[in-house]
Amino acid sequence: MIIYNVTVSIDIDFEIRWLDWMKKTHIPDVMKTGKFLDCKISRVLSNNEDEYTYAIAYTCKNMNDYNNYQRNFANTLKKQHKKKFPGKFVAFRTLLEVVYIHE
């Protein structure tokens, strides 16, 4: 399994609007691509009161699904995010391979 993690720091004045948009629009659009199994949003706990940071973790079955997402969908979805909240966030992405799950 692959985890595509997007970490976003959002301006405090836009946090509620951004989180609502992520839940109702952006994440459903990403999930509609059919390349991911699930998505989890986590808030990074920090002492910085000027911004909020979230980690959005999308899980996919394999690298083929991830690469297909990147090739066919990612640019359009990134542009929508940037257009909706211009200059109000900073994002970075991390790709993880699950090597062990303890249940």
What does this protein structure show overall?
With 103 residues, the chain is an alpha+beta fold. The protein is built from two helices and four strands. The protein has a four-stranded antiparallel sheet, with helices on one face. A hairpin with a 6-residue loop joins strand 2 and strand 3 (51-60). The longest helix is centred in the last third of the chain and has 22 residues, at 63-84.
DSSP, total strands: 4
Enumerate how many helices there are, as a single number.
2
Mean pLDDT: 95
**Radius of gyration, Cα only, in angstroms?**
14 Å
Helical proportion, percent range? 25-40%
User: Strands of the largest sheet, in order across it?
Assistant: 2-3-1-4
Low-pLDDT residue spans? none
Largest sheet: 4 strands, antiparallel
Distance between the termini: 15 Å
Shape: globular
Instruction: Note the run of SSEs as H and E.
Output: EHEEHE
Task: Name the structural class.
Answer: alpha+beta
Strand content: 25-35%
